[in-house]
């Protein structure tokens, strides 16, 4: 079985919240795809409840696309501690951390239920499992802790 880089990361050494570049892959046509670890809470110490994480997922899908070029996907980790962000091209961890900070700030202060895309039976596979209240509370907590552009040394942006 192929080794997955994320499973070789020592989760006891990282200091969340942070943005980490996992890998950059170069395709056959020289296109670059970047994979980022957007770690919102400390692994094995906390986890965002599914309803809040689900709502954050739906919001980040649009908010990050508004700020970063080439966003392909932003998907939650099964451990509920953060997200994979996949983009075309290269972005610095500082640039991604700033975009994440801006998105979480928007969630914490300005987003209303009407702003959330994909919350009905037709556009979401588990539309009942959302919580804007939880998303806002977690966004505030993460922003209070500060988002680092380095997973091991706190370099809060």
Concise structural overview:
The chain is built from three helices and four strands. The chain is an alpha+beta fold and 157 residues long.
Question: What do you see in this structure?
Answer:
This protein is globular. The protein is 31% helix and 19% strand. The protein has helices at residues 50-67, 93-109, 132-145; strands spanning 18-26, 32-39, 71-76, 82-88. The chain has a four-stranded antiparallel β-sheet with strand order 1-2-4-3, covered by helices on one side. It has a single domain (14-145), classed as Gyrase A, domain 2. Helix 1 (50-67) crosses helix 2 (93-109), helix 1 packs across helix 3 and helix 2 crosses helix 3 (132-145). The chain has 157 residues and is of the alpha+beta class. A hairpin with a 5-residue loop joins strand 3 and strand 4. The longest helix is centred in the middle third of the chain and has 18 residues, at 50-67. It contains three helices and four strands, in the order ββαββαα.
Please name the defining characteristics of this protein:
157 residues, alpha+beta, Gyrase A, domain 2, 4-stranded antiparallel beta sheet, 3 helices, 4 strands, 31% helix, globular
Blueprint of the fold:
Blueprint (H helix, E strand, L loop, with lengths): L17 E9 L5 E8 L10 H18 L3 E6 L5 E7 L4 H17 L22 H14 L12
Antiparallel strand pairs: 1-2, 2-4, 3-4
Helix pairs in contact: 1-2, 1-3, 2-3
Gap between N and C termini: 37 Å
Helicity level: 25-40%
Radius of gyration: 15 Å
Instruction: Describe the main β-sheet briefly.
Output: 4 strands, antiparallel
Total helical elements:
3
* Secondary-structure arrangement, i.e. CATH architecture: 2-Layer Sandwich
Identify the CATH homologous superfamily: S-ribosylhomocysteinase (LuxS)
Please report which band the strand proportion falls in: under 5%, 5-15%, 15-25%, 25-35%, 35-45% or over 45%.
15-25%
Uncertain spans: none
Q: Tell me the CATH topology.
A: Gyrase A, domain 2
The coarse silhouette is globular
Mean pLDDT equals 97
Structural category is alpha+beta
Q: What's the order of the H and E elements?
A: EEHEEHH
Q: How many structural domains can be distinguished in the coordinates?
A: 1
Q: Quick one: CATH class?
A: Alpha Beta
Strand order in the sheet with the most strands: 1-2-4-3
The tally of beta strands, per DSSP, is 4
């Amino acid at each position: 079985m192929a080794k997955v880089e994320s499973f070789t990361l020592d989760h006891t050494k990282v200091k969340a919240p942070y943005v980490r570049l996992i890998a950059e892959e170069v395709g056959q046509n020289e296109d670059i795809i970047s994979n980022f670890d957007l770690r919102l809470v400390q692994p094995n110490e906390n986890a965002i409840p599914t309803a809040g994480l689900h709502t954050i997922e739906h919001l980040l899908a649009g908010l990050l696309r508004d700020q970063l070029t080439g966003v392909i996907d932003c998907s939650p980790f099964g451990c509920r501690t953060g997200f994979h962000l996949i983009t075309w091209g290269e972005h610095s961890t500082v640039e991604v951390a700033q975009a994440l900070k801006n998105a979480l700030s928007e969630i914490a202060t300005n987003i209303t239920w009407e702003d959330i895309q994909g919350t009905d039976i037709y556009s979401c596979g588990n539309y009942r499992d959302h919580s804007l209240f939880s998303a806002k509370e977690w966004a505030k907590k993460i922003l209070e802790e500060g988002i680092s552009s380095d997973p091991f040394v706190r370099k809060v942006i």
